[in-house]
Amino acid sequence: MIPMLLSIVSNYSMLNHILLRTIMTKIINAGILVAMVIAIIAFGGCKDSSTNSTGYQNNPTPPSKTPPPNTITISGFAFSPSSITIVKGTIITFKNNDSVIHTATSNDGSWNTGDIGSGGSKTVTFSNAGVFGYYCARHTSMKGTITVQ
Ligand SMILES: [Cu+2]
């Protein structure tokens, strides 16, 4: 009777042990799953950040908010930049941010945007090399230089 009881207790203990191990395994597996989810959120969720695991940049530079160098902005009765160097074939956009009409007129008369209204823009293609001084035909104190290489 006693050995049988011991056997039952032993079996119960063993069963309990297996049950405990199963529960522990499940808890550990759940823990691994949680860790993986955290890892995915932490690392996978920010793939757009500046560097990846190899150290190379994914997105080298954010989009620039300043105008590209082939745009000349007219603002406050001034051309900006007032002096610019470009290569042959560049299309320059003159953008008028003032509330009055302006022009960009070449000193030698070789090109002229004509009137550019407030908020408007005109383009000029520079096909020939040279240094072109220009001014605003409506406000002759407004001056600029375009160097075409
Ligand atoms: Cu003007």
- Along the chain, the helix and strand elements come as HEEEEEEEE
Mind describing the biggest β-sheet? 4 strands, mixed
Q: Rg to the nearest angstrom?
A: 37 Å
Strands side by side in the biggest sheet: 2-1-4-6
- Can you say what the CATH homologous superfamily of the largest domain is? Cupredoxins -  blue copper proteins
Form type? globular
Report the mean per-residue pLDDT as an integer.
75
What percent of residues are in strands?
A: 15-25%
| Uncertain runs | 5-9, 32-52
Describe the structure.
This protein has 149 residues and is α/β, with parallel strands linked by helices. The protein folds into two domains: 2-46; 71-148, Immunoglobulin-like (Sandwich), CATH 2.60.40.420. Helices cover 28% and strands 25% of the residues. It is built from one helix and eight strands. Strands 2-1-4-6 form a four-stranded mixed sheet, with no helix packed on it. Bound molecules: copper (II) ion (CU). Copper (II) ion binds next to loops.
